[in-house]
Amino acid sequence: MADDNRPLKYMRYAIGEIILVVIGILIALQINNWNQDKSNAAQARKHLTTLKLNLEDDMRQAEILLYNADSTIQFSSISLDQFKTLKPIDDKIQMYIISLMLEHNIEVNKSGIDALINSNSITYINEELQVKILNYYRHIEQLISREENANGDIKLMYEPYVKENYSWIYNKTNPWPRQTEFYKDDPRLVEKIDEKSLLSDKRLEIMIFGRRYQAMRLRNLYTTTIVLAQEIISDIESDI
Predict the structure, then answer these.
(1) Residue 212 phi/psi, 5° resolution?
(2) 48 vs 116: CA distance, rounded Å
(3) How many whole angstroms separate alpha carbon 45 and alpha carbon 148?
(4) Mean predicted lDDT score pLDDT of the chain
(5) Can you say whether the dihedral through the CA atoms of 120, 123, 126, 128 is positive or negative?
(6) Has this prediction a pTM greater than 0.90?
């Protein structure tokens, strides 16, 4: 074309060739991006399946912990009514006191959320579900912090004080099954409960009040855990 003195036509042809090449590259890139997005979306669904299993385990634990928190609230409330002389000291006071020593904590498996974040797959699920998942794990952080606070009170204050001042709860008359079983063959005489001394122990009363307060806070957090987890599980099932 150039030899025939047709440079304009030649330039048009060259530009057309360039445009075709560029279009081809863009199409190839678009196909590659589409395939990558498809792969990432599939990976996100895989990680969501793992997350769903994690949440189901969280729910099972939270239901047990909720029951334990209710027991702590019940036993501490009865004990406090006895301190206020609204109820008489009964034969279960030993069980009430020792049961409040029990520490409880949730063990969260974060393999699903970690995989979603580390692989950047979380951006391939709908935004509303992303928000719910991230809010859930922020809630879990609050729950764990509250558990650590409650268990710290037990280890550092309540348990040492009870063991130092109320050794009589450790005997075969304690209706708590673990105590009854362990001391069932103990031939020693059982130390009587000093009700007057017990009811005048303001420090013990305050610590039992603290155990009740912590259990009530944890009860609310465990209930919220169950509600949030169930909502996310339903969304994941719909999404998958």
Answers:
(1) -65, -45
(2) 8
(3) 33
(4) 89
(5) positive
(6) no
| DSSP assigned state of 3 | T
Q: What is the pLDDT at residue 14?
A: 72
In contact, 222 and 143? CB cutoff 8 Å? yes
pLDDT at 148 over 80: yes
Q: Is the confidence at residue 64, as pLDDT, over 70?
A: yes
- Which of 115, 102, 95, 194 lies closest to 151 in space, CA to CA? 102
Side chain identity at 222, as an amino acid letter? Y
- Quickly list DSSP for 41-97: HHHHHHHHHHHHHHHHHHHHHHHHHHHHHHHHHHHHHHHHHHHTTSS---TTHHHHH
Report long-range pairs for 217-220 (Cβ below 8 Å, ≥24 apart). 217/146, 217/150, 218/65, 218/69, 218/104, 218/143, 218/146, 218/147, 218/150, 219/66, 219/69, 219/70, 219/73
Query: Of the candidates 62, 109, 54, 64, which has an alpha carbon nearest to the alpha carbon of residue 236?
Result: 54
pLDDT at 240 over 70: yes
Confidence of residue 4 (pLDDT cuts 50, 70, 90): low
- The identity of residue 19, as a single letter, is I
